[in-house]
Amino acid sequence: MRPAKLNPLFASLTSLPGVGPKLDKLYRKLLDREVPHVADLLLHLPSGAVDRRAQPKLNEVVPGALVTVSVTIDAHRPPPPHRSRAPYRIDTSDDTGTLTLTFFHARGDQLRKQLPEGERRYVSGTVELYDGELQMVHPDRVVDEQGFATLPLVEPIYPLTEGLALGNIRRAMQGALAVLPDLPEWQDEAWLSREQWPSFADALRHLHQPAEPTDIAPESAAWNRLAYDELLAGQLALALVRAHMRELAGRGSASEGVLRQKVIEALPYSLTPSQARAVDDIVNDLALPHRMLRLVQGDVGSGKTVVALIAAATVIEAGRQAAIMAPTEILARQHFNTIAPLAKAAGLRVAVLTGRDRGKDRAEMLERLAIGDIDLIVGTHALFQDDVAFKDLALAIVDEQHRFGVHQRLALTRKGEAVDVLVLTATPIPRTLVLTFFGDMDVSELREKPAGRQPIDTRVIALDRLSEVEDAVGRALAEGRRCYWVCPLVEESEKSDLAAADARFKDLQARFGDAVDLIHGKMKSAEKDRAMARFAAGETSLLVATTVIEVGVDVPEATIMVIEHAERFGLSQLHQLRGRIGRGSGRSTCLLLYKSPLGETAKARLAILRDSEDGFRIAEEDLRLRGEGDLLGTRQSGVPGFRVAQLQVHGKLLGPARDDAALVLTRDPQLTSPRGEALRHLLYLFEKDEAIKLIRAG
Ligand code: ADP
Ligand code: MG
Q: Which of 94, 276, 435, 545 is found 20 to 30 A from 667 (Cα to Cα)?
């Protein structure tokens, strides 16, 4: 149960001043939450501040500066009646000089009320020199003596979304701060005083009502406090998940390796040394009577799928079942298509289940799964559905893990007894991030690419040369080659994404005819599959796509990729995309088209990609240049990542948070001590309350 003290923070945003259904919808987008709560708004931290503290006399004002000045209103000068477009001016002064306030399209009656002649007002805004005189166009703030007493001289600026104004957020935020309760302290007092950090509530107040612009820097004490809170919540949740997993003792799935050997023999190639090592690691884990929690980390094209299949064959030989879960329908189908012939050769019974399967076929499949007539099931989120039951699920394999949350991973493991977990990820994640997202999982790395791969020739080309690019693509198509054409992600709007891809599609179709096809995220999954299948079969040879092809799609015959507006993508994302080509033995070319002019950093980024195919190196550079959000693809896929912590700034807190979490749970595994009770608040605030359910009662 959620602690009652938190109730005001879990009220909906419409409980705040000025937030109606319309703004609520915008907040949903801004905060990336289905149902945003007051707590979510409070954790939306400022990206900067406006500083109005300078209060010079008029003769000290430096033109161009943002100031707050105290002036007497001398005279109103409305525009002459026949020139209503002319500005409305108000002369003001202090004992050292004069200042003109200038308003366009003004309403005189309002101005007279706000700035009555003969009275004193405080005005805040940017002062400019106009015809040798000081003037302020449309002051940001106009207040009287009384208003000045409460005027915030440093105002936070927030990341926004279209339609939502700064004023909206500030107002809602004040409302949120007004209901912020004092919560029991969940951090260790000694650590807090050593770090000189404020309480949780004070930290939020400092950040949303800064006294100095430096108060809102990520390096500030307040921000550090909240970042540590977030990291601790994450580490606690991971530790609880692990403790829970350990508690349910594992079951060994011993096997002689007959099925495994059959799969290996059915392969048209031999395993790379690191694939073989990963298989050994997994087979060892599976034979032991404790839970496996292993990450197979390997660059795009390193051959993770077959490792997964061999792992599955191992538990199947022990008479049990396995499931492979993929993040998208396309990927699930594709895994299935890759796996089916190999599985058949080894005598494994495989099925695929996605959201698209309904009705009688689905019911029949579920029946077979429940009685153990299916050995291996490949699917999407659909595998979590309540009516999906296994006879004896032994191994859950999760592909492209960072797109799934911890609780989703758990949902699958609950479908069996002591289920072993194997996670496949293509994003080469630096160590600190593995720790953050997965806790201390065991890791097998696939470092080399399968033999016979040709390097990809990557070129960086200005978009102005589009027609040359089209010519080159035309020549390649004439030679019978296949090509992906990726259209960019347009900030914030799926619609314009689609429009861009659609326009390019029409364009290319006009030129190359029926060879051209289009695939995008808004298509029904059956349509997407058909488009993919036509391309894979060579019925079409130029596939225009939005980033739906990003993950895992495998068409070895595709040897060309054009990426428009490459400068808008994250480096790792470009690397993933590029990994769609260079999979066969043919020579591959990737053309990164950018819009000029390109800044120095952007140039450097694309150059890294041109010069390297090492996903690990690219990921490190990406982290250095852009921050962790893009690296993990969280911005695109909307997975809740970090809201407060920035790993470049707060990464050093991760180790302490992890140790702290371990210590807490050793001393108080049920979270029932005073600190434990307080920590439950923390877990709710950072949406880790799912982990609380794992604490064994009594
Ligand atoms: P990823 O790690 O990106 O998921 P896949 O499992 O899709 O990679 O494998 C990419 C391609 O490499 C597939 O076409 C697969 O058949 C092939 N492949 C996998 N292992 C080997 C190997 N040892 N030798 C040659 N080709 C391989
Ligand atoms: Mg894959």
A: 435
**Å from CA of 428 to ligand 2 middle:** 13
Q: Let me know: does 353 contact 382? Beta carbons within 8 Å.
A: yes
Clarify whether residues 381 and 462 are in a common domain. Answer: no
Name the domain boundary from 413, 446, 479: 446
pLDDT at 581 over 50: yes
Closest-CA residue, ligand 1 atom 12, reads 303
Is residue 534 packed enough to be buried (19+ CB in 10 Å), middle (13-18) or exposed (0-12)?
Answer: middle
* Cα–Cα distance for residue pair 55/137, rounded to 1 Å: 17
The pLDDT tens digits for 596-625 are: 888 877 888 899 899 888 877 787 676 666
Examine the fold and report which residue of 381, 415, 446 is the final residue of a domain before the chain moves on: 446
> Is 672 part of any domain?
no
Neighbours of ion ligand 2 (CB under 5 A): 552
Closest ligand to the CA of 554: 1
**What does the pLDDT average to over 243-249?**
64
Indicate whether residue 198 lines ligand 1 (CB < 6 A). no
- Are the beta carbons of 372 and 392 closer than 8 angstroms? yes
Each residue of 204-239: pLDDT tens digit? 999 999 999 999 999 999 999 999 999 999 889 888
Our count of domains for the chain comes to 3
**Same domain as 461, residue 442:** no
* Any ligand 1 atom below 6 A from CB of 79: no
| Span 138-182, pLDDT tens digits | 999 999 999 999 889 999 999 888 889 898 999 999 999 999 999
Ligand 1 atom closest to Cα of 305?
A: 6
Counting ligand 1 atoms within 8 A of each CB, the residue from 263, 264, 265, 269 with the most, and so the one to mutate, is 269
Same domain (yes/no): 505, 607: yes
- pTM of the predicted model, to two decimals? 0.59
Please report, for the domain that includes residue 546, its CATH number.
3.40.50.300
Residue 406 confidence (pLDDT): 53
Is 584 touching ligand 1 by the criterion CB < 6 Å? no
**Dihedral angle at the C-alpha atoms of 501, 504, 509, 514, nearest 10 degrees?**
-30
Domain-embedded: residue 189: no
Residue with CA closest to ligand 1 atom 26: 450
Q: CA-CA distance, 667 to 670, in Å (whole number)?
A: 9
Ligand 1 pocket test, pick from 305, 339, 445, 581 with the greatest ligand atom count within 8 Å of Cβ, gives 305
Alpha carbons 668 and 313: distance in angstroms, whole number: 40
Please report which confidence band the pLDDT of residue 121 belongs to, taking 50, 70 and 90 as the band edges.
Answer: very high
Ligand 1 atom nearest the C-alpha of 307 is 6
343 plus 477 within the same structural domain:
no
Q: Is the minimum distance from the CB of 271 to ligand 1 under 6 angstroms?
A: yes
Check pocket membership of 551 for ligand 1, CB cut-off 6 A: no
74 within a domain of the structure (yes/no): yes
Q: Are residues 473 and 597 in the same domain?
A: yes
User: Residue 691 has what DSSP assignment?
Assistant: G
For the chain, the helix, strand and coil percentages under 3-state DSSP, each to the nearest 5: 45, 20, 35
Q: Please give the pLDDT value at position 567.
A: 87
Structural domain including 286 reads 248-446
How much is the pLDDT for 282?
Answer: 95
Q: Of the residues 263, 279, 306, which should be mutated to test ligand 1's pocket, given the most ligand atoms within 8 Å of the CB?
A: 306
pLDDT number for residue 357: 86
Q: What pLDDT does residue 323 have?
A: 96
Measured from the Cβ of residue 193, the count of other Cβ atoms closer than 10 Å reads: 10
Going by CA atoms, what residue is nearest to atom 20 of ligand 1?
303
By DSSP bridging, strand 88-94 and strand 97-103 are antiparallel
Question: What is the distance of C-alpha 184 from the center of its chain?
Answer: 31
